[in-house]
Amino acid sequence: MRRLPAVSLMILLAFTLSISGCVKSGTPVDSTPEAASTAEKQVSIVTSFYPMYIMTLNITRDIPGVKVTNLTRPTTGCLHDYQLTPEDMKNLEGASIFVVNGAGMESFLDKAVKQQPDLKLVEASRGIPLIRGEEEEEDNPHVWVSISGAIQQVRNIGTQLAALDQGRADRYRANTEAYVKKLESLRDRMHQALDPAKTRDIVTFHEAFPYFAQEFKLNTVAVVEREPGSEPSAAELADTIETVKQSRVKALFAEPQYPAKAADTIARETGARVYILDPAVTGPLDPDAYINIMEANLKTLQEALN
Ligand SMILES: [Zn+2]
C-alpha cells in the first residue's frame, strides 16, 4: 500500500507529459534501467527480400533498438510476380519502415502500401539509372548484382534510414561508410582480376546479370531462361543453342536458384561448359554474405574466362 502514492504520481506525471505533447528524448521519466532503455524508441525495419536484408543488416549493425526482419524467406530469391501471403502482411503490420529494392521488383508494393498507409518506405534504387529489360517497357531491377549498383543502393538505404530515424542518423551513416569501404575494396579486387581477361562473351540466365556485365565489360550473347522459374520452350532452346554455336561461347553461367537442366542441354549440344554464377538473391543470414558470394563468383569467372 505504501507504493500506491508513487504509482499515482507516475501516472499523473505521464499524463502531464502527454498533455504537454512533447517529451524530450534522453530525459527518462523514471531512473530504472527498463525505463532508460525504452526512452529511445525501438524501430522495426522489414526488408523485402534477401539482398535488401543483407544491406540493411550492415547499415544497422550493432545499433541498439533496431530490429531487422526479412519479409520473405531467404530461399525465396527474386520477387518477380511474388504475391504477399497473409503471414507476410502480418509481418508488415508490426513494422514502421519497409526497405524495398524498387525498380519494379516488388510488384505487390502498391497493395501493401494501400493496406498500411503509415508504413514508411525506403527505396534502394531511387535515382539510379536503370537498364531496360527484354520487354521494352520494363526496367531491369537487378541493380545489386553489380558492385557499383550495390554501393549506390547501400548509400540510398543509409541516407533514407538516417532521415526517417534521426536519433540514430550518425550511426546509420558510420555503418554505411564502413560497408561501402568494404564493397569498394571488393570492386577493386574484381576489376584487377577480370579486366585483363581476353574472353568476355558469356551466356546467362533470367536477366539477373546486365548490371554486373556492364560493370566488368562482359558481353552477354544470350539469356537462356527469359521467364524466371520456367524452363525455356523447345524453340527457345534451339534458338539459344544456335546463338551459342555461332558466337563460339565457351562458358554458360547457370544460377544456383534455378534448375540447370536447360544449361546442361545447351552445354551438351554446343561443347560449352556450365558454371554457377550467383546473383546473391538467396544465401546465409550473415552480414558478409554478399561479399562472400561475389568472391566466389570472381573465382568462377577467373576460371571460366581464362
Ligand atoms: Zn530476378
Keywords:
binds zinc ion, 45% helix, disordered N terminus, two-stranded parallel ribbon, 11 helices, Rossmann fold, 2 domains
Written account of the structure:
A four-stranded parallel β-sheet has the order 2-1-3-4, with helices on one face. The protein folds into two domains: 43-188, 3-Layer(aba) Sandwich (Rossmann fold); 191-305, 3-Layer(aba) Sandwich (Rossmann fold), CATH 3.40.50. The termini are far apart. 37% of the residues are buried. The longest helix is centred in the middle third of the chain and has 26 residues, at 169-194. The chain is globular and about 60 Å long. Helices cover 45% and strands 11% of the residues. Helix 6 (147-164) runs antiparallel to helix 7 (169-194). The chain is α/β, with parallel strands linked by helices and 306 residues long. The protein is built from eleven helices and eight strands. Helix 3 (50-59) links the parallel strand 1 and strand 2. It has helices at 4-20, 33-38, 50-59, 86-93, 109-115, 147-164, 169-194, 210-215, 234-247, 261-270, 289-305, and strands at 43-47, 66-70, 97-100, 120-123, 201-204, 219-223, 251-254, 273-276. Zinc ion binds next to loops. Zinc ion (ZN) binds at residues 78, 80, 142, 206, 208, 228.
